Amino acid sequence: MKYIITLMTGFLFLSVHAQQSLDSLQRLKEVTIEAQRIDVPVTGTSMDTIDAKLKSFYSSSSVSDLMATSGKIFVKSYGPGTLASLALNGTTSTQTNILWNGFKIESPMVGQTDASLLPVFFTDEVIIQSGGRSDSWGSGSMGGSILLNNSPLFNSGLSVMAQSSVGSYGDNFFSTKAEYGTKKYSGNIAWFNHQSKNNYLYKDFSGNDVNRSNAGFSSEGIMSNHFLHAGKHTFSLHAWLQDSDRDLPSSVTESPSTSSQIDKSIRAIGAWKYGKGNFITEVRTGINSEQLIYKKYEADSSDFFTSSSRVESRYIFHESQLLVAIDYEHSKAHEHYYSIVPEQNLFATTASWKKEFRKIKMNAAVNARMEWIDGKDSPLVPSFGVEKKLPLNLQFNLSAARVYRNTTFNERYWNPGGNPNLLPESGWSYNTSLYHLYQLRAINSNASIEYFDNRITNQVVWMSGTYYSPVNVLSVHSYGITAREKITVAIKQLAVSLTGTYTYTRSVNTKVASNQQSSLDKQSIYVPLHQGSGFIFLAYGKFMLSYEHVFTGSYYVQSDNLDSLPSWSVANAGLTYKLPYRKFGIELQFKVKNIFNENYYVINYYPMPLRTYYISMLLKFNSKKSKSQ
Amino acid sequence: MKKTFALITVLAIVACFTSCKKKTDDDSPASGDYSHGVVLVSNEGSFSSGTGTISSFDSQTKEVKQNIFEEVNHFPLGNLVQSISVSGDKAYIVVNNAQKVEIVNSQSFASVGTITSLEQPRYFLGINSSKGYITQWGDGSRGELKIVDLATNSVLNTIDIGKGSDRMIQSGNYVFVCNAGGYDPLTYDPVNDSAISVIDVQTDNLVDRIIVGYNPAGVAMDSNGKLWVICYGINDYNNTANNRPGCLVRLDPATFAVELTLPLQFNSIDMRLATNGDGDKIYYQCVGSVYEMPVTATVLPSTPFIDRGFYAFGYDPYAHMICGSNAGDFNSNGYVIRYDEAGALVDSFMTGIGPGNFAFLPE
């Protein structure tokens, strides 16, 4: 931890001149450049920001736990604290990006991010961006992306918080955060420590309650974000360091595991933006590095380092915006089982034109991106997006984009079996949605329905042969709808919020390998046809009651659809008591997860916990009595 | 607004009614006699999140039964099922990540015991009615042989016999074990692997290590009582100068002398080996093709006998069929394709996920 603190001190020193860069992240409107801003890089896609009240109930949990309540994302979880990947709209987890402040944080080795290692506490905003947009986010954004953002709190004065949570099976979470905001500067530093024995109860094949073995974990992380606005310049700096050490539980069809894994990650982003007249220039650079030490008999270490930079210029004229950008990304990895030490140099150019048609209340954008990996060019990736306001408080969004995914180092260089001749997965992603806003006195309603459609070819699947090896043989058509409704009612001291989400997803193998015909026209594995969730938040005076219900329909675990896992539904509830006192505040919270003791498996033979309990206390201080907390 | 509510409600109700567990295997009932006239196939199961299974195929009626162990015993075999071996009236199913061997009555398939205290077991060989051998990879740095008391199903003794102890065969008073390299099947470790370990079944001692070629992976006996061994070779990705092709070796099990070494053209971990029922021909697989060769030959055949490769490969001495399995993506049921001795495709049958090993039982 010592090196983390040393590094953080360095970042803090540098951050005196730092401020916000990403347009979509700014909370405040008074920034000069903000007034010129019309850029939203994913015009026409469906953006769903996770409810702040829900997020606050998950402040001591991982992003994977939070996303599991979305009613839309499938979280492929091996259990609490263990590997969890996110998949959106019937695509795979390698086809769904996770971005931190606009930067992809996936491992180039496996093409995905372990969302169980991403603490909700380190995010100010979590957005599900539905609709593939490789033109904006690059490789991997085939079905959509999960955006984890940090945003500034200008004019907030000094605020300090500390939270301690104690839960079943030795779960201890402690977090603290100090934040300071003036008119031009906003910065924070946050730290968390999470430990759990995690020997939770599940039911074995005979129906007996059994404690999960070798599932304990501990993780610790520190994050700091800084935003500085200085005339025509804005700066921002983000740094995130995290260590975790966890035992790896085995499937219940294996003998109890003795293996464990250490993950150490360092991520940082720096950005500078300059706006003058109709021109805006922005430079961003970031690093994403991880070391993974797997221990069974002896420690086996692998690591990767990715650095990426982007230079972007925008010219705004007549309600239009022209954007050109150049990206450079370098990745390198070490893995005992690789045939080489792979390095990858990626150049990309992006051009975009966006027009705001104010008279007809419409935005339209056309983007195109071209990539070169180690000198080899990939196909031009265009996109088209439109957002149109309609009568009766309706809004229509449409996005069509060519999408692709570059193959991972594991797929290319694993020894034996890696296939250096793999082609990128590619296809088209279409997304259309209709929003309806309605207000009647104290009642607010926000309804939406979205249709998504992804057609992907050259999808990689590992096949047996001379070696177990990845090949570009699969074509997949995934499509479906997501319907959402959120109603809020506020009457005097009573505030009620109801949210419901339902997603129907078909994901069909339209082309398979010649020796895999049994999977033709079958539903993709781990893609439930039906998913849904509902939340109720009831706030009265200083009390808030929450109830969540998450439903996941049956899904197949064999590509020939000959075996499936049963549906499951999990309910969670919480009660919060808030006591403000002058510049101080106390929040006491009691939570119950899996109230009805559902015995369920997200992944075959990896049991999830029965009922668990948590209590937490949060203390906070704000020199200005900030309303934001 | 009302319509939106109605839609969500209807969809939620539909979801609730369509979420029951689907079990679409149209298997026959599991009861039956598995001790005669069947091909038993051990299926590994999904790598990280599955259970292995056993399929049975009746050569006469062509009836296939899936997952017979769990159907009879009501609990899954475990992950991953490496191999199956029949000895006397029992079948021994080696489950390597579960570190155990499940023992069933070979007629009813009812569980009769479990051998534990194992570490990454690979194959079982019944020596006599009271003793069996189990090869295991252990922690990967060494290979071991477990001597098992079949009366108590307990491990009597453990001997170090070389890295990656794997397939084995008995000839007279000796058992010949392949040291195939274990987790590193394509490297070369002349001290620990790339040998055939010879065990005296009367003393259970290691009596010799026969250097045959790089990473011996399969062993079979011909009608002359000679042993044939196929070796993977070496495939060093980091330095191709170290690469060596595999080879086919004939050795005399009485003198432990290597009589013939036939270098193959390639190195590969898909090398497989079997003899036919009469023992006058060997079949071997190398880089996606199966070749046939008389046991008297001193040169390798130039053209494939079957021009495709299989995940598992065996010869049914009772039906006189060559059986090859297709494991596909390891996320779906595999299947076994049967060929006659002329190399003509006869039929195929479905198995569980990752069909990896066979046991052939007489009528």
Can you offer a commentary on this structure?
The complex is a heterodimer of chains A (about 625) and B (about 375). By secondary structure, chain A is mainly beta. Chain A has 6 helices and 36 strands. In chain A, the strands form 6 sheets. Chain A has a 22-stranded antiparallel barrel. Chain A has a 5-stranded mixed β-sheet with strand order 1-6-7-4-5, with no helix packed on it. A two-stranded antiparallel sheet of chain A has the order 2-3. Chain A is globular, with a radius of gyration of 24 Å. Chain A starts with a helix and ends in a 7-residue tail after the last strand. Chain B is globular. In chain B, about 5% of the residues lie in helices and about 45% in strands. In chain B, a hairpin with a 5-residue loop joins β20 (about 270-275) and β21. At the A-B interface, β25, β27, β28 and β31 of A face α1 of B.
**Number of helical segments of chain A?**
6
Q: Low-confidence spans of chain A: pLDDT under 50, at least 5 residues?
A: 1-38
Radius of gyration of chain B: 22 Å
Q: Mean pLDDT score of chain A, rounded?
A: 91
Structural class assignment of chain B: mainly beta
Radius of gyration of chain A from the CA trace? 24 Å
The total of helices of chain B stands at 2
Quaternary structure: heterodimer
Strand content of chain B: 35-45%
| Total DSSP E strands of chain A | 36
The biggest beta sheet of chain B reads: 4 strands, antiparallel
Beta fraction of chain A: over 45%
> Span between N and C termini of chain A?
29 Å
Largest interface: A-B, 60 and 58 residues
Q: Which structural class do the helices and strands of chain A define?
A: mainly beta
Which whole number gives the mean pLDDT of chain B? 88
Main beta-sheet strand count, sense and barrel state of chain A = 22 strands, antiparallel, barrel
Q: What share of residues of chain B is helical?
A: under 10%
Shape of chain A: globular
Q: Could you say which overall geometry of chain B the principal axes of the C-alpha atoms support? A: globular
